[in-house]
Amino acid sequence: MQHNSSIKEVLIDEQSIKQRIKELGQQISNDYQGKTPLFIGVLKGAWVYMADLLREIDVDCDVDFMSVSSYGNGRQTSGGITIVKDLSVDCEGRDVIVVEDIVDSGITLSRLKELLLGRKAKSVEMTTLLSKPSRRIVDVDVKYIGFEIPDKFVIGYGLDWDGRMRHLRDVCVPNE
Ligand code: IMP
Ligand code: MG
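^ thats the input. predicted complex w/ inosinic acid below
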């Protein structure tokens, strides 16, 4: 059984996620007609979303991954990121779409965008399955958002709680 005693509430169920990702896939595919975007998944959290989103994309595309960690206390606009695993392809001249699980302070995505533009990506757009607008510290323009959620810690569908629970099919709120 997936939903054991550590789950308090299912916030977004599997079917709703599936439906929304279908819509986002169509929207992105329309916007990128005639282009070959490079999708960059942010490990580890984005892996499940990336796998489902990419199968709703019907333009030619490339896929790569990065792993970054944010430093500072995450509550300061001075927060930065360090690269734990870098891209294995060159993003110069590419139409990049960064794929995230959730945007919280916005620091990770805003720093990643700066970094990729610094490497001369032709364009950088971003998609996230989840967004917590009330937590934003840095203004970041995420073009494709799955769901806006309240300021609750969530797990499942790639999101972890101390490394666990990424495999849950729904986005859930854990018990304390
Ligand atoms: P940001 O730089 O503050 O936007 O950080 C976003 C990152 O924080 C995400 O990629 C997640 O790894 C993590 N995060 C933020 N909120 C949650 C949550 O509710 N559950 C699990 N991870 C979260
Ligand atoms: Mg993440």
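Strands lie at 7-12, 38-43, 62-70, 81-85, 95-103, 123-131, 144-148, 171-174.
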